[in-house]
Amino acid sequence: FLINLVSLMAIGGVAAEVARRVMNRQQHRDLEARARYLGKWVSALDDRANLQSLIPPLGAETETRITLISRSGQALADSHQDAAAMDNHLERPEVAEALEKGVGERMRFSQTLGRDMMYVALRLDDEPAGAAIVRVSLTKSYIDQSIGGIYRRIAWAVVIVFVAAAVAGVVISNWISRPLEVIRRGAERFARGDLDLVLPIPDSLELADLADTMNQMAAQLRDRIDTLLRERSEREAVFASMAEGVVAVDEDERVIVCNAAAAWLLGIAGKARGQKMEAVVADEDLRLFARRVLAGERDLNDEITLKREGKVLVRVSGRALRGAQGRDIGALIVLDDITRLRQLENIRRDFVSNVSHELRTPITSIKGFVETLLDGAMDNRDDLVRFLGIISKHVSRLGAIIDDLLSLSRIEQEIEDKHIHLTEGMVAPILESSVMACEVLARDRNVDVVLDTPERLRGRINPTLLEQAVVNLIDNAIKYSPSGGRVVITAREDSKEIIIEVRDQGRGIAEEFIPRLFERFYRVDQARSRELGGTGLGLAIVKHIVNAHGGRVTVESKEGEGSVFRIHLPR
Q: Are strands 486-493 and 115-123 parallel, antiparallel or unpaired?
């Protein structure tokens, strides 16, 4: 609109100036034509003595001031003034120019009339009636009035063209701006993440290219964002499923990544991302380890004990975390919980030590008695019989240990290979069979064994293994019960599990020994256990059998009040 307005005003101004000049030239030519006509008229006039009376009517009729001037500059006649009262006009510029060149022209202020006038003076060579110059003139206001009409027409033309251009501009602007507004709103929706939007294609070729380009951009962004989200989800899934803890920190020791395993190991309850390590990691040793990696030490490995509810031993590995340009931007720390591994190593060492100890005792005894016999004791029949009896007893003990070890190994292997088959069956017959297997021992030790179980109690069991576990519990209960004591075996069920209970009236077990009862070769009273013929593997076998059934074993015991062992099997 502004460009149109300025352009039209400039064109209008130029047109007005051109019109003014054209009008001035036209007026000049018109006045010159009138002067020539008057010159001829004066030359043809018969009565030249009374020019002063003839000129005014002619001037009024033509709306022109007419002046006849002599060569000396004296006014001879004038249509608007008394010539006798007028000044000498020889110094008038138009008169001087006419005398010199034949025609003179000026636009100047008239001292006689007191207004601006346009003068045209024509030299008359024949000088009729003594008139050497005929001068005609018009007032500037008359000329301006004529020009003003042209100005008004130009002004109206400018206004009409401007209005027409403004209307056309509004129409064209709306035609362009409506699709642009649609594209702008679409771009805002793209910026908000609504990349499924498809912009309509406008009719304009340029805007159609723009809309098509933005649609392609949105599709590419959608594909890239989907790819990034998928990769992030996969990466987070990998981190979340890793057994090892992963912690990444930046150069300011702020957490970048912390997966679920690391959060569990470090006891982080809330959101760790973006927080300082000292705010979320309580263990000072781990923070020092991270600082060492950030300080530039490469490929660090160490073992740290995390102080939690029970100590957790972790193997930590530290590497520099590198950015896309290969610059170090932090540290990557991997935590591997080796608590169970270390416990298994300790169990293995204890097992080897215990097996060696358990086997060494009978083997040493056997070797000693054999050497004694070889040294001559076998010549004495009583010593021979007694020593061979002791050797047989130790051999039987070795056989029992080996049998229990093989049984325990077989059970573990079957659990690992998932070869233990559980079937729906009655529990009461198994308990009855277990009691019968221990009748001889109970009778020899004068212990009364009582069974109390519902006949219709059923569960998913492996009859052979469950009987072995119950027999081991009853055997231990009988061995550690006093003469005349009583062992009670009961079975019941609740909403979740079947409970088999073996209760004795023995000396009981101190509370500090209970957590280790089911370890291999662990004995509360080693001397009494060996005296009773135990191998130290019975309760370990019980635990593995019950675990194979998906159950658990619990113990309640007080010194001097006996013990209660319970097998809990899922219904």
A: unpaired
